[in-house]
Structure to design on (912 residues):
């Protein structure tokens, strides 16, 4: 069969392009080897934010001295139902637009043909253009190989059939700390080990410290500059020996040390698609790979492994294919978000990065606990930080550590991008009893006399 | 004693001006007759959003089949503690900036003198300038006069010592529906009567209908085009007879029909301050009243009775006093927010208003349930509506009905104000699993091929 575009992968790197192109009247096939919606819908953003939402509600009940009773199985069933609904939403979207869905493993062949292998046999799809959006898989490590039982990834960790008593999470990146936050709220005893000096190592120390303090208050035990030396199975449990000598007996070991691009063994290199040293697909600003007519988008091209980055790349690839104007993705403007009660949302450069590049900047930092919206959530450690260029003309970085930061950052992003001037933000009636209204106060703080904050 | 500025009222119309002016080194006195922080901090925004936050958490627990147990007294104690902390935050802010706080009733005298009467006696403050920020009081109605027992306002309704079984709320405006939403989540049986055709009558029918459906699902009984004909006390209960003939026996009757400006009997008119027919203080765009040197801000000047509007007016008054550049408040750009689980945030014109003015517009409306962030919150009725001018050049109105709309609207506000173009919003990587990312999709939808939505 012949298609205008074959898209490999129906996750956030794939389905937006499919929807756009099919909507424009192109003949589009989407190949999916597992579940429609990919990692984000089935194993990442959606189930993790569902559990997160429930976990935060539990903490709120406790705030007034109350207690919630619920069945673990009821929680997991609900998570599954949300995921199913999200997945079906994407299927419905693709169907409505007229994109064809082909279930099976894709292998790219010479001449822009895609072989789709499934239990029912193999078929070949011919394509004018191909979009590779195969994503990443969780990586394990030599001392802790996924064993299909207790050494697991995020994929299993969000669907545990029984509540574990004690969990060790290897890796204090976004996946690790989000899971630690949620599980601890669900009264699981959680340990996190992070090899580097602090959790969330790609963020500034003050940001990481605020999250660490918050997690510690929830009972999470964090071991930094530490990793796992050995993991042994012992009956139904696992004994982990840390490099510090500490020994932990746990029910589950979640390995969250990184992701591996799904780029090998699917014919990419043979078809002339260049990979980088880590196996990520190399693309230009139009999301074209080195093979003519082959595009790529999402996790498989590397960069920040975030759904909203993948969506934008997918849109850029699709628009490039039909010759529509498309932006060059500004990777610095992609907010990094961490959903941990005290959420993190980060745009632009960190202080670390600016320092390492020798760029001078002025740092402004305000505590956010003055906001009643933050008091209600009991988030004492909340703050926001804006890094300005030395001449004060450009916002170089925005870092928000606060409840709802993931929503709030969209307003700050407009300031980072220069679309909203600080001077205008200072006089904007952002709604009261939100965290977004901090933008008014932060702008005032930078520009002169802050009305809701002490002097700087 | 002689001051540069005497500010009457320490609520959201007063304390921002006090903070700004004292911070600039002026000698500032703030007169407060009751509690620092005024209505918003003590009886409005803060306690209502605290209860709201808890109420939504309860609903989340129920979503997975769970149940929360808590003591009503524990809830109220917690609300009080949040309010106290917010109040003390304002006191601390004013003290740190060097503003003096005077407790007592203020009466304005000729020659910009302010008499402060308290239990300790009376004193007179002389002022170069005066800012009147005396706010509003809840209004009652002839058939239901506040009785200090069961016929109450928002002030008592948020601090009930015992959980009522059944409550009648007279008035389906913002205060009424927010209270209905929270109380129903707390398993109080709630009735709302609204005199006009639909609740939230100042909003479009589709917005009101979505909130009504949401409230009905929570068990709230809403009677529109209906009011109370008679209320009688009967033992510890109240029997209300509606104009429809329906009779209700309830524990409490909350009157939430409107607010009355605190502008009479405090010397304003005698000092040359003009009031409008409803008693609101008339001001110009610099917040100057008709009496030289006398400014006013907040609820007492009328317009939308919203905290963020009051804050901005207070800043404008303060900046005008010291001759700093100040914006003219654009009242259309003040978001109206309703915190009802399925929240409402509304900026600009409604369809009703545009139609009544004979202004033609193009309406775009998208359902928001396609967002996983909305699915997680189970908010089936969520939607967003953008009204564009006929030439497509100007956003005339934005109406969001969704969880977190109060935060999300700040991003949409930038579009309403023309600071962020739809074309740019369509290519902005707003974080995934938020409601804010709907802005990208909505912009795409208006401009052409929507990636996450069906065609229009």
């Amino acid at each position: 069969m012949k298609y205008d575009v074959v898209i490999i992968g129906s996750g956030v790197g794939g389905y937006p392009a499919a929807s756009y192109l099919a909507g424009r009247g192109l003949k589009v096939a989407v190949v999916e080897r597992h579940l429609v919606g990919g990692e984000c819908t089935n194993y990442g953003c959606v189930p993790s934010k569902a559990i997160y939402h429930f976990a935060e509600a539990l903490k709120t009940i406790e705030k007034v001295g109350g207690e919630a009773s619920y069945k673990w199985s009821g929680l997991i069933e609900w998570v599954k139902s949300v995921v199913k609904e999200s997945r079906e939403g994407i299927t419905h979207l693709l169907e409505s637009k007229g994109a064809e869905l082909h279930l099976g493993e894709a292998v790219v062949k010479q001449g822009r043909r895609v072989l789709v292998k499934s239990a029912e046999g193999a078929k070949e799809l011919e394509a004018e253009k191909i979009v590779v959006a195969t994503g990443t898989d969780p990586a394990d490590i030599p001392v802790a190989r996924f064993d299909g039982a207790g050494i697991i990834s995020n994929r299993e960790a969000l669907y545990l059939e029984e509540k574990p008593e004690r969990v060790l999470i290897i890796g204090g990146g976004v996946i690790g700390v989000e899971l630690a936050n949620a599980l601890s709220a669900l009264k699981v005893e959680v340990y996190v080990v992070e090899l580097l000096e602090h959790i969330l190592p790609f963020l500034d120390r003050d940001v990481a410290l605020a999250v660490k303090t918050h997690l510690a208050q929830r009972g999470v035990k964090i071991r930094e500059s530490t990793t796992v030396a050995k993991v042994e199975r012992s009956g139904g449990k696992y004994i982990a020996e840390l490099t510090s000598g500490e020994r932990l007996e746990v029910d589950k070991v979640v390995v969250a040390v990184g992701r591996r691009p799904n780029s090998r063994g699917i014919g990419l290199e043979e078809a002339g698609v260049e990979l980088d040293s880590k196996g990520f697909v190399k693309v230009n600003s139009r999301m074209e790979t080195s093979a003519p007519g082959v595009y790529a988008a999402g996790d498989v091209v590397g960069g920040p492994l975030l759904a909203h980055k993948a969506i934008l790349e997918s849109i850029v690839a699709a628009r490039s294919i039909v010759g529509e104007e498309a932006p060059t993705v500004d990777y610095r403007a992609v907010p990094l978000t961490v959903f941990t009660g005290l959420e993190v949302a980060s745009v632009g450069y960190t202080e670390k990065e600016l320092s390492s590049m020798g760029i001078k900047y002025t740092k402004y930092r305000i505590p956010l606990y003055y906001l009643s919206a933050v008091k209600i959530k009991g988030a004492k450690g909340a703050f926001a930080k804006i890094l300005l260029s030395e001449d004060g003309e450009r916002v170089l970085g925005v870092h928000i550590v606060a409840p709802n930061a993931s929503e709030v950052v969209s307003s700050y992003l407009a300031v980072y991008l220069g679309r909203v001037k600080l001077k205008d933000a200072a006089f904007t009636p952002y709604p009261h009893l939100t965290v977004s209204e901090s933008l008014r106060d932060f702008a005032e703080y930078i520009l002169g006399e802050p009305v809701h904050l002490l002097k700087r």
